[in-house]
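hi support,

uploading two proteins for the ticket. first:
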Amino acid sequence: MTFVFDSPVDFRKIAQFLKTLISYHEKTFFIMYKFKTPIIISAVLFIFLSMSSFHALQPDSIIGLWKEKDGTKTIKIYKVETSYFGKITENLSDDENKIQPGTVIMKDFVYENEEWKGTIEIPNRDLSLKGKITMENPDELKATATVVFIGKSKTWLRVK
């Protein structure tokens, strides 16, 4: 289970809540009362150390510039209303049929269940393929294009 906070977490309020909870039940839970300071510290430490899981994947995480792992292409992913699109901004490929900068190759990607699904266009072959993007980490994504049951994946690294 993943928790996402829209606003910063106020650890003082959490500690105060835990302290109130413990003092309310101090007669019932003698052990908890006796060790309430270590419990509060442990709870706050747990929350603080777990913040990486609380800061879960956001739908807009893919927005930005991405370079293909081999360094030949750069793509800009942007949002239009509720969908994500991607266009080639740089193509250093030696291929004579290379995709020209400005060409949109990702269309109508929608975020659901920690992945984005949409259409990947390959204009020089006049193909529209089912596409899926997953984030491997905040600076790496994997784009997969699929035809029937055959898929090909490429890794893209965030340009900083």
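and the second one:
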Amino acid sequence: MELWSVQPLAEPEACDTLRMNEPSSRTSREGGFLFYRLVKFVMNEKPILDYVRLPARLDSQQTAQLLGFAPHDIPILLRTKLLSALGKPAANAPKFFASAEIEKLSQDNAWLGKATRTITTHWQGRNGSRKQICSQLV
């Protein structure tokens, strides 16, 4: 369930969620209009690190938080078989992970080192190929 909260702003911000309200008695720099920012709140969505007891299944975002990686690094770890998803999900299906396994991996220094090297190597390769393409164009 999603809720939206409206927060008044002292002055307009460069933001796509800005909405201008009808003229009111309160004046601002923008000709008597009040500016509001719509803020989206998702109920029951708190950081995984605040949980007292972890759920049995974790999604990619929660797994990334527990392991200390970025969410976009999880597919790389899956591709290199350093992480394994529960079941046999399709390539475009959301992936879930066993929290017991993720907790074990988060405390294994050897695995964390190997995963970090894999992520670093992946992004060095991606950024290196981009630099080569740019240098060939010049």
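thanks. also noticed: The mean pLDDT is 76.
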